[in-house]
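Class, study these two lines:
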Amino acid sequence: MKKLCWNLCFLCCIFTNCISQETGSFPSISESDLPDARFEMPKTYTGTSLFGYINGGAELFLEYGFSGAWVNEIHFMGGKYTIEIYRMNGLEEAFGIFSVFRFRCSSTPPLSPFTCHTKYQLQICSGSFYISIINSTGNQTDSVASLKIGESIVRKIKEKTADITYYLPDISAETIGREAFLAKGNLGIMNGAPDLADYFGETKGYCAVIIQIDKQLTLSVRFSSIDDMNAFAAQHHWNPDKLSAKPEITSAGDIITLISEKHLLIRKSNTL
């Protein structure tokens, strides 16, 4: 009997420890952060269990590099808010998923270098986290409440946020945060720049930052290997041996520059 009790206590300790580790891996908030708020029971998702929460969109998160999600609903300042905190596998992955969902931002509050505020949603990329705060009425109170919730979450994130400027050194960080889109595969391209789906085709092992300013479409594509880059070049009938730091004009009128060993800067002659 004593042995059974000891085993049960031991299992309880392990279970409690696992829960605290899982919760602690997110910048989750509670009544201690917002004393006037009432929180529902949070839910967490990892790996393929995300399909149970966002069936039809989970593949996109997994392509970018998804690690886990913390979801809760809170009642605050007279409104109801859904908080979604997605932990991605890295800083660029977090910016990528933020960039594909960012849409028609009415403002970019200074909670993080990457924010997007609309009537019904506040989106934030901070560290390796993508944060979404959704409200149902879109009034001014909801806007203020969302910012308070977002601030309380971001305050707990100690990581630096991704620096995307090295992809586009001639473009300001503010413009990149507002306009640039990062893709790591076919689903990202289809969701963020569908007109480029054929351009990338079956390309593997890449991270592309894409931006259009006025009529200039620029792609900054970093490959995982020389072979991946050469396969991409062959797809477009470029001679890999001629890729260099000196800009080259292709037969299609694109300007190609090799900005590092496995990194191409492409200024296309046509827009999206």
Q: What stands out?
A: The longest helix spans residues 2-24. Residues 32 and 267 are 50 Å apart (CA to CA). Residues 173-268 form one domain.
